[in-house]
Amino acid sequence: MQTTFQQLPGLLRKSCLPLLLIIAIVVSFVGILSQSGQVSEWPMDQSFVTRADLRLYRLPTGWVFQYPRFNWSGGVSASLLIGLYKLVVSPAPETLNWHAKCITTLLFLGSAYSLCLLLIRHWIFQALAFSVIASSALQFAEPSSDIIAAAFFALFMLSVRQGWPRLISSGLLILFGVSKIQLLVCSLGVGAVWYWWDVRENRMRWQIPVGMAFWLMLLMAPGLKLYGIDMVRTVKGLRTFASSYVFMFSPHQFAPSSETLAGSITSWQDVMRSVFPGARTVSDVILRYPKKYLDYLLVAGAYGVFSVLQTMGLMLIPFFRALRLRAFPAVTQLSLRFLGAAAFFSLVPPLLLRFISPRYLAVVFLPLVVLSAAAAGSSQAPRSLKITFLVCSLLTLVLNLALFSERLIRSPLMPFG
C-alpha cells in the first residue's frame, strides 16, 4: 500500500494530460451535438462542407469529378479532408455538420496535445496550456477550415521539431497553406524562414523548396486541369470588404431606414453603391475614397484588438515577458520564428479587407500558448515568469469557462467566427 501511495504523484503527472484530452473531446462533442447538425447554406462559409464531394460518377453527358476549388472557404486541403471522410462514412445531410466539427475538434485538440507533450517539460504547465487552448471554444468556430489550418500548422511545427523527413514537413506546411486561399502567402513566408534556418544550421539548400513545390503542384494540379484559372480566381474581395464595413459601421447609424447603411445590411451591393459609388473593386475604394478607407482601417484595427483580447485572454502577458527576459529554451527558437512569420502573414494582409475575427487567430493562438508554457516551465525560467504564467493562465481559463457556452452558441456567427 505504501509503495502504491508513493507512486501516485508520478501516475498523476503521466495521466493528467491524457485525461484532460479525453475530457476536452467529450465536452466538445457534447457541445457540437447540442447544435444543429445541418450545414449552413451558401453564402455562409461553412457551406464548403456540403460542396466537398470527391465522388466519381457517370451522367449521360459523361464522367463527373468535382475537385475542391482553392477559392472556396474550405480551400483545397480542408475540403479534401471532409470529402475523403464523406466518401468513407457518407453522413446524412441532417448530421453532416456534426461530423465535420467532430473531425475538426479531433485535429485541433490532438495537435494541441501533441505540441504540449513535445515542447513543455513540466506537467502542470502542460495541463494549464492545454486547458486554456481547449476551453477557448475555437474548435467550434465556423468555417472549420480555419481551425483545420491551425491544426496543420501545429503539426508542421511538431514535425520540424521532431526531425521528420523534410518531405513530410513540407507537405504539412503546404496543407496548411492551401486550407484557405489567404493562407498560401503565409505558408510561403513560414517556408522562407524555415529555409533560412535550414541553410544556416544544416547547409541544406534544396530539400525545402523542392518539397514545397512538389506538394503544391500535387494538390493544385487536378483543380487547375479541371477548372483552369477559375481554380484560384476569386471575386470575394469586394464582398468581403463590404460585409465587414456593414458589420462594423451599421450599429452606429442614427436613423435606421431603407436609405441608411443599417437598412442595407443584407445587401452589400446597395452599401457599395450608396457609400462608394462607382467603386467596382477594393482598389477603386482605396484610390477614389482614401479617407473612408482610412476610417475603415482604423475601425477594423480596433475590432482586431478586441478580437485578440477576446481570444488570447491574458496569455500575451507571459509571452511578451518571456520575450523580454529571453527565457525561451533553445529548442523552441525555430518554432518561435515560425510563430512570428505566421502572425505577420496571416493577420496583416486580411486586415486590408476585413477586421481580424477570432477564428483567424487560431493559427497563432495555439503555438503562442504552448511556447509561453514551454518558456515558463523550463528549469532555467525565472520565478517571476513562472508566477506570471500561472496567474495569467488560470485567469484566462476562468474567463474561457465562463464564456464557453456563449461562444458555443455564437460560433456560426460573425462576432465569434
TrEMBL record:
Keywords: Membrane, Transmembrane, Transmembrane helix. The chain crosses the membrane at residues 16-34, 70-88, 100-124, 144-160, 172-196, 208-229, 296-322, 334-353, 360-381, 387-404. This is Glycosyltransferase RgtA/B/C/D-like domain-containing protein. The lineage of its organism: Bacteria, Bacillati, Cyanobacteriota, Cyanophyceae, Synechococcales.
